[in-house]
Amino acid sequence: METPNGVNGSPTLPRTPSVKALSLTEYATNPSPPREGRQEGKEKVTSVVPLDFILPTGYPDYLRLILTSRVYEVVNETPLTHATNLSNRLECQVLLKREDLQPVFSFKLRGAYNKMAHLDPQTRWKGVVACSAGNHAQGVAYSARKLKIPATIVMPQGTPSIKHLNVTRLGGSVVLHGPDFDSAKEECYRLEKLHGLTNISPFDDPYVIAGQGTIGMELLRQTNLQQLEAIFCCVGGGGLIAGIGAYVKRIAPHVKIIGVETYDANAMVQSLAKGERVFLKEVGLFADGAAVKQVGEETFRICQEVVDEVIQVTTDETCAAIRDVFEDTRSIVEPAGALSIAGLKKYVAANPSPNTRRQLVAIASGANMNFDRLRFVAERAALGEGKEALLRVSMPETPGAFSELMKAIMPHAVTEFSYRYATESVANVLVGISLTSPASQRAEELKNLLERISSGGLTAADLSGDELAKSHIRYLVGGRSDVANERLYMFNFPERPGALERFLATLKPNYNISLFQYRHAGSDIGKVLTGIQCPDGEVDQLHAFLNKIGYPWEDCTESEVFKTFLRS
Known about the structure:
Blueprint: H1 41-46, H2 62-67, E1 80-82, H3 84-90, E2 93-98, H4 108-117, H5 121-124, E3 128-131, H6 135-147, E4 151-155, H7 161-169, E5 173-176, H8 181-195, E6 198-199, H9 206-222, E7 228-234, H10 239-251, E8 256-262, H11 267-274, H12 297-306, E9 309-313, H13 315-329, H14 335-350, E10 359-364, H15 373-385, E11 388-396, H16 401-409, E12 414-419, E13 426-434, H17 442-455, E14 459-462, H18 467-471, E15 486-494, H19 499-507, E16 513-518, E17 525-533, H20 539-549, E18 553-555, H21 560-565
Parallel strand pairs: 2-10, 3-4, 3-6, 4-5, 7-8, 7-10, 8-9
Antiparallel strand pairs: 1-2, 11-13, 11-14, 12-13, 15-17, 15-18, 16-17
Helix pairs in contact: 4-6, 4-9, 9-10, 10-12, 13-14, 13-15
């Protein structure tokens, strides 16, 4: 099993401050405290569903809720696209359910509309409210316009203008409040109680789940049930996979329902393993549409019954899946929308079959991604596919050493090469190598390459799984410095106007900054690598200060990559 990308390839995440850190995406908020008058557990679910739609178990009959869904008042059945290139490569029939073709480019419209269409006419005239800056916000705004219901969408101050302008264009009224989504969620609750609005949940509601479940109903009409082996869904709060699973398992129980999460946002994996909902202190934010700290209560109950497996994938594997979709459809899906494809590929690798007619369906769940993120995706896709390796090579600082290195590398193509003189004895090089073997043989190809380099008197190490090397060091190779008391930290911070300047202003008066590397990657979350001079005896005070400023951080001081390329 692969591990998430961290320092030295280890399974690390940004450290969670001991005080409340900024919740930088809508699903990365902290749990709300118990609300006065708000129902919990089974009562919360059954209170919104008519009694004749309740099973003897006391829970909703999702088959009937899905069959009577009202989503087709606003959406058309989305196509099931045969991914020719991917099918040929994986030797099976790969089918993509094109939810990225919805009017708001996401499946979220189904659940939002179905919920709002079933609101009591006596209360819906007051309007609805939601806390979101992503696909859920657009689904609510679009549905509200169709149903002529007032909609208020709460987002943090500093939300990128493209997001709140999209919601405004669709007819929603945007309220910008607070520095992060925890604050925005509190404002959403205040407006709900003050004006008697209905809060539209992004996933943990029977009608939302049923709306997403109509995808499963369509799939069973569009596929050959005798050949259909598995359906792959991205997992965030669990609404999509719960809805699809609830329908499919009633009609075709032999079909596997498989969820896909990233290693650093795996709330469903941990919850299913423990048998109860787990709260993650921190989540990775690359696939921000599925970066949830805690899955829904009702969605988790359903998933315990209908989900066969949850596969975990890396950021690089997700980028490779985005490219796979592009090569087959000439469409670009968002990271969360590509999780299902990444998981499908890992499933095929782990479960080979001589049956080339078996059908595997991946839900391409959305396509809302900033154009600027494509640079990052393109850089990481080859690594995620295993078609590129990032190596550290140490060699003697002598004439002819470079020539020996190139002889060892040949005939592999070099995709990246970074070097600067550091000492008289040893030269350290960061080099990207293109791998050409079939996927099943690439590990052996890389092993042979490393042995060939080492046999020439050089030493080499694979950094393809090292997040520090991939995100920062590859742009910093330029000599090593002997900076007294230097410590190295990686930070996440919100990509908002002035955020970088505020981050620097927060650090600068308190500590001397010895290194700083930042590169905009088109995401809502920015990554910064910072060197800070701090004596050993003051490290605890420094960490207390870093906790106080609220940005997720990770100590990289002991990283071998840092020691090799930047520290004398």
